[in-house]
Amino acid sequence: MKRIIAAIMTAVTVCCFYGCKAVQSTSDTIQEVKEAVETAKAEVKEELKQESIGPELSADGPVVFRSTDLKGKTVTEDIFKGNKVIMVNIFASWCLPCIGEMPGIEKLYQNYKDRGFLVLGVYPPNDEASDVQEIVDLTKVTYPVISCDESLQRFLSGYVPTTFFLDGDGNLLSENSIIGSKSYSDWEEILKGYLG
Questions:
Q1: What are the residues facing 44 on neighbouring strands?
Q2: Where are the beta strands (DSSP E) in 66-168?
């Protein structure tokens, strides 16, 4: 956040400085201000990208779990079979950014499930299933949503949403989780990198 403020202040300072320079043409000043703004935008984008990288993940082999979905049905790692990429999205029913990104994740699921893509929504143990069901109904999510069992709790980062990717055997595809919500196009870009 400090970098964002510093970048904006730099752009304002450039504007003020060049506004006081009588010999410089207006078009040169406008171009320099545009360049300063573009530099500030690039710095902010890079900072936001770095802030979304979550803690390093570790797994001693494939992810193994036994949990229940919202209907009380048992769900295990067998759900991964037949898929190339699994997106595990840890969310909470009280988290507005989580809820806000769910329709985009659902759209991603619908658009790529025939190519071996599965989304698995996971809600934390302190969340009520009835509250989660309301959110699922509200956002029209059709991908599987399960409670976070003890074996999945190692992936809880302390932040929601937290997302990570697995292959069809349950092996981690990246060293770090992703913290924070993303747009459909951001998730699609990441997914395409895994699907190839």
A1: none
A2: 66-68, 74-76, 85-90, 117-123, 145-147, 162-167
Beta bridge mates, 69: 146
H-helix or E-strand spanning residue 176 = strand 176-179
Could you report the per-residue pLDDT of 30-60, keeping only the tens digit for each? 676 567 656 654 554 454 444 456 555 556 6
pTM: 0.72
Signed CA dihedral, 48, 95, 189, 173: sign only: positive
Structure tokens of 93?
Answer: 């029913």
User: Per CATH, which fold does 54-195 belong to?
Assistant: Glutaredoxin (3.40.30)
What is the rounded CA–CA span in Å between residue 12 and residue 14? Answer: 5
- Condensed to tens digits (0 to 9), the pLDDT of residues 71-104 reads 999 999 999 999 999 999 999 999 999 999 999 9
Residue 124 three-state SS: coil
d(CA 158, CA 63): 19
